[in-house]
């Protein structure tokens, strides 16, 4: 089922989500993951956080190298000293793009959709998406971090 994506200006996007997922196997959570996948793909996104579709859970999904991944109760445990600048956009901020500087690599720890613990160093584009989506769960939009913004009509 396609979900409605909240757009910048909606106060829910600026709220830090504190609600961790207690039971990954819960039908509501499993359905949410499928719906978020469908919604992200339909909108040609590469990442989507639960609060972008109005859900109060610390959970996000991404698609990188044609792999779909789910991060539940995610935490960034460490970051590289090296930082890189990349262009970012956001399904909640249509038409606006900007250059954001972030650590190149991050050590991400989370649960996946099968309730398995995952922990690894993500690099490049994947590290970028992870940081952008984790920001969402903390109520932060890329606009808050961008050094320059531009509109594409
Ligand atoms: Zn976003």
Short synopsis of the structure:
The protein contains 2 helices and 8 strands. With 153 residues, the protein is an alpha+beta fold.
Oligomer: single chain
Strand content: 25-35%
Summarize the biggest pleated sheet.
Answer: 5 strands, antiparallel
- The count of helical stretches stands at 2
Number of extended strands: 8
The helix-and-strand class reads alpha+beta
Provide the descriptors you would attach to this structure in a database record.
three-stranded antiparallel beta sheet; globular; alpha+beta; 2 helices
Which helices and strands appear, and what pairs or packs with what?
Elements: H1 27-42, E1 47-49, E2 59-64, E3 67-79, E4 83-88, E5 96-103, E6 106-111, E7 117-122, H2 124-137, E8 148-151
Antiparallel strand pairs: 1-2, 2-3, 3-6, 4-5, 5-8, 6-7
Residues 90-92, 132, 136 line the site of zinc ion (ZN).
Give an account of the 3D structure.
This protein is α+β, with helices and mostly antiparallel strands and 153 residues long. It is built from two helices and eight strands, in the order αβββββββαβ. The chain has a five-stranded antiparallel sheet. The mean pLDDT is 96. Bound molecules: zinc ion (ZN). Zinc ion (ZN) binds next to α2.
